[in-house]
Design a protein that fits this description.
2 copies of one chain form a homodimer. In chain A, helix 1 crosses helix 9, helix 7 packs antiparallel against helix 8 (290-314) and helix 9 (342-353) packs antiparallel against helix 11. Chain A is built from 11 helices and 19 strands. Chain A has helices at 9-20, 35-43, 45-56, 66-78, 135-154, 178-185, 237-248, 290-314, 342-353, 368-372, 400-418; strands at residues 83-86, 92-96, 104-110, 124-126, 129-131, 163-168, 193-199, 206-211, 213-222, 226-227, 259-268, 274-275, 278-287, 323-332, 335-336, 359-363, 377-380, 386-387, 395-397. In chain A, strand 1 (83-86) and strand 2 (92-96) form a beta hairpin. Residues 1-29 of chain A have low confidence and may be disordered. In chain A, the strands form 4 sheets. In chain A, strands 1, 2, 3, 6, 7, 8, 15, 16 and 17 form a 9-stranded mixed sheet that branches. The interface between A and B is large, with 43 and 43 residues. Strand 11 of chain A pairs antiparallel with strand 11 of chain B.
């Protein structure tokens, strides 16, 4: 087996025991990268900042990630990888071979932002802060991956399994995880992925091991409509919508795992003197438990059906009845990686070793998909802090020492998970 | 007392008995204008059509009636009236003195249309049809008034009471009858009006003697808002809105006089993953009975208050409570002119005498205001038919004989109501 130019054995010797130890309550000293690798990361600082700015200023609006995907693919090639492609849905896939053919370990960041194509994006500097829409979410993840690839290439790092570096489309909002969903359920690597690490957010202390699932609906209530005075007495879709809200808000949900619902957006009607012919209601439902989420969804749909039936029974349907048109507009599966899994241990250890206050969290990220499939997966941060995510004044702290420490966490996790001798 | 050049006594002799007779089920021969006046109306035909086109092509969007008001004022002067002014709210007022100083008899048509200022308006001819937005509603009313004034001036017609010819602003929709409301409740003629005839619609058979009143609200439900998952458990204004709809639709209203309600327009929320901070609901309520309308309004407001209180009790108000902001966006008082009133008799008789199938109706027009104040008032049509009112392809039938017959009805009513010797 080829050996890397720089000995990582020391680091691994420290990391391996930790990776299989129980979750430590005390700060751990393991997960520490050797000084030589830390020095290389430090030497990457200027390049990472330059990459970050270049990626950020290449727009990737929802459903329009092509330009950034092409850039990221080329940057992966420039970093030394040769097997770089863009898949059917727009994800960038770069395979770095391992000692064996699989299963593949995925290291991923998302290409898309929440900003539309008319948003002007120019990175501004204010002291040690860089500011621009999307700079931390998730340009930083993409730039971090490039730095890690360059270091692995420079060190000729050998891994047991292949590593697939990915830039996903559609992580945000209406994108509904379509990139990562395609990767796991339809693409070339379907059934061949053994682990997944998503790099997404500027907080290297945050280890997202729980996937909050969500099911989102747009419920259309359609009826005949008519003049408010002349047609009084006919069914009104407004009433069916109202009874649906009432039915939903009577549902009891478990506090643990946290399970929630919201009637969030409503619209309908065109003039005050008309009975509307269409009212639309958007509903968000979430849970860390797939079973609780499914139960809630059934209760919500049953409430809507009962509301429609009730309105059709309460008023005249001579001009037409109310009908229900439920459209699923969001589907993020719930799931999680157990806290005693080595991947969780590695991430917590690496984060603490780099000087961050490591902590577990749950959220809705690209890792939802593998977690829901039972594939070990995490989403970790890679920065030294930032804020105002999803706003036009999003910013990132880029003070050199902490920034490089943030960068080190992901690399330490990757090496712990893939190096020969790791569990 | 001055006599008109042309003897109208014959017509009046026929009309006076009818005006005080019980409502005739048989077609009546009374209300007939003398042949000489009918000939004068026929001679006005080309001028009326020219006036109609000129008025129609002078835009009068909601709340922007100034241009048409200035035109109509000048046309009234050109027709021979000298006391022509525009009042504080934008109504055109033209006083034609009578034998006494009062009370004043008002003959009115409305200046405003439902079309915004970007609507292109050019009258098109298709055989005997003229087509343009607003041509029948209510350019025809304004043009009719001009013809009647010219004939009264030419005949030096003497009337017992002064006649105030009016072009009102704000009859349509959100205008909420503000012109006629000002006339009766604030302007110079407040307390001095003894009768009111609104000329509005192209159907000279329709006599609107009942005013359907309406009260319209935009209910704002405000709350703290928050993340659908993170803030789950806080109050949601969507629920308060829904319970308001439910409460409203549980209200029992009388079938006679017809009393109605509608939850008609709803909006709220910005994203599916947020608890909204504002939901707005528009409600329309109508009745021919002021008491029934007031009772319904109180029930609706009580339902909204109960809904808000219920939601504040059902969920956490730690981040803030739901508040209710009810805004009255429409207020048209109910009322009516008794069918045995001379004004009603005169209108039915004149309509039937002119060859139309006279019939009583109720609606919401400028006459709502005087009717609600107990002042005898009607809204009558002045045309020979038309259609597609409030649409871009509105049209008017202008075949000469029927059109002139339609014109005759209003003049016959005015003369019956104001000539010396009339009751």
């Amino acid at each position: 087996m080829a050996k890397s130019m720089f000995a990582l054995a020391g680091a691994l010797a420290l990391m391996i025991p930790l990776a299989s130890s129980p979750l430590a309550a005390e700060p751990v000293q393991a997960g520490q990268l050797p000084a030589s690798i830390k020095a290389q990361l430090d030497a990457q600082y200027d390049q990472v900042i330059a990459d970050l700015i270049r990626i950020t200023e290449t727009p990737a609006p929802p459903f329009k990630e092509e330009r950034r995907a092409a850039l990221f693919a080329q940057m992966l090639r420039d970093a030394g990888l040769t097997d770089v492609t863009i898949d059917e849905i727009g994800n960038v896939l770069a395979l770095r071979p391992g000692q064996s053919d699989g299963p593949v370990f995925v290291v991923s960041a998302h290409l898309d932002t929440v900003f539309d194509e008319d948003t002007p994006i120019k990175v501004q500097r204010e002291g040690e802060r860089l500011m621009a829409p999307g700079i931390g979410d998730d340009s930083l993840g993409l730039a971090s991956i490039l730095a890690w690839v360059r270091i692995m290439e420079a060190n000729r790092t050998v891994t047991r399994q292949p590593i697939l570096f990915v830039g996903t489309v559609g992580e945000e909002g209406a994108g509904d995880l379509r990139g990562v969903r395609h990767l796991f359920t339809k693409g070339t690597y379907k059934g061949r992925i053994g682990g997944f690490l998503s790099v997404d957010n500027a907080d290297a202390g945050r280890v997202v091991h729980g996937a909050v699932g969500s099911r989102r609906y747009r419920l259309g209530f359609k009826g005949p409509g008519g003049h408010s005075y002349g047609a009084f007495g006919i069914v009104n879709p407004m009433v069916a919508m109202a009874e649906t809200v009432r039915g939903l808000y009577a549902v009891k949900v478990p506090a643990e795992p946290k399970t929630t619902y919201a009637a969030s957006v409503v619209s309908g009607g065109t003039s005050v003197n008309s009975i509307p012919d269409l009212v639309q209601l958007e509903v968000d439902m979430r849970s860390g438990s797939p079973a609780a989420l499914a139960e809630l969804e059934q209760a919500m749909l049953a409430a809507a059906e009962a509301a429609v039936a009730g309105e059709n029974a309460a008023r005249s349907v001579q001009a037409g009845a109310i009908s229900l048109d439920p459209v699923l507009i969001g589907d993020r599966p719930a799931g999680g990686t157990p806290i005693d899994h080595a991947l969780v241990h590695d991430a917590l250890a690496a984060s603490q070793a780099a000087g961050f206050t490591a902590r577990l969290d749950e959220s809705s990220t690209d890792a939802n998909i593998p977690m829901s499939l039972g594939i070990p997966a995490l989403t970790i941060g890679t920065g030294a802090g930032g804020g105002r995510t999803h706003s036009l004044d999003e910013y990132l702290e880029t003070g050199r020492e902490r920034f490089v420490a943030g960068l080190s966490v992901g690399l330490a996790v990757i090496l712990a998970q893939t190096q020969p001798g790791a569990p």
